[in-house]
Specification:
homodimer; alpha+beta; DNA-binding
Amino acid sequence: MSSSLSPVLKKSLSIQLGLPMDRLEEFLCICVFEKLGKNQLVYPGKRCFDRLYFIVDGAVRTFYYTDMGEEISYLLQVNGDFFGDYESFITGQKSRFTIQVMVDSEFFYFTKSSLLTLVNREAFWLGFKSRIADLAFLDAKERINELLFYNPEKRYLNLLTKNPEIVQKIPQKYLSSYLGITPQSLSRIRKRLAAGAD
Amino acid sequence: MSSSLSPVLKKSLSIQLGLPMDRLEEFLCICVFEKLGKNQLVYPGKRCFDRLYFIVDGAVRTFYYTDMGEEISYLLQVNGDFFGDYESFITGQKSRFTIQVMVDSEFFYFTKSSLLTLVNREAFWLGFKSRIADLAFLDAKERINELLFYNPEKRYLNLLTKNPEIVQKIPQKYLSSYLGITPQSLSRIRKRLAAGAD
DNA sequence: CTGACTAATTAACAATGGTTAACGCGGTAT
DNA sequence: ATACCGCGTTAACCATTGTTAATTAGTCAG
């Protein structure tokens, strides 16, 4: 699918993934482009999540159901983010997550088996695989910091500054779940902030 | 340092790291054994944390200082855990963390450069490096779940059941920081639980 | 346009955590 | 012994969140 991405996007992917352009092209050859409409589910079904997605343009929500059938929004992501269940991707176990497309979106994805094909072909790709793991780790760590060191109000403010797009694109009930609070609390926080910003 | 570990420990390391015994021996050749006493700092100084440690026996606390000079306990770990600043290890940037030995402890560690030596010698070790990244990710993800889905009381209970050793070995002020609450709150939670357990 | 459904807000009350301050306990140094 | 210090606990008060329920706003299909 190498041809469907803009040169600008390729350049930034090259940096993000730590791949020189020729390697990036090689990588994109194993990738599959996909368009999904709002509210569609990415790779639905309770099975192993054997692929990783990149958001060319759009927004997704990764969630799962608690024992009581309640939805918990684990991640919210927009343009330029990778998503998928990396744990399931690594371990090969069934994923508990469902991923929902929040606005009409464009993605590409690659499967574990196609990545392993690259790895088997040339040791170079093992280093790339390792980098993917590192990126997933760094994301996860940032999320820990966020949850551990900031209260809900600060978390909301951080989201507003770091990712205003998400606040625009994603309904509040999902935002609140992502922030680890109830919709009512988010509503109150927004009211407080609006009052304080006179 | 291959000879200093018990066969039992080697066996469990072999599983944990996904290395057959002969490869494990090879790996242990790049490792350095180290004993540190209570309250000593592991690899002190504000520089890049270019090594990863394994706790043979003991307990450590990973913390850092906020802008206001307040200590925040990021991680508490005991026997069988790996620690270090994996982010610094990956990126080569200076670490913000300090790691304190909580009880007299025995570790071994390996440096990034010695790991890269293995990787350069044989492509096999690239897969191992990747596995380390995966393990770091899975740990981080578990911590996110913990913080996102459970309130402080439940987090304390989880710690009690999953890691009673930590609750024994680590002073409460660090436990509370790890749980993301104040020492007073932890004290109240313990009181609530003691009252409820009649 | 209307009705029906969902989302967001608001209110009232309870539960919980943060803050500040005081107290007691167990070490340690003098 | 005593004075001190760090630690854990407790208390009182305040701020924030959760819970439940009602209301309002918004969306979509017909």
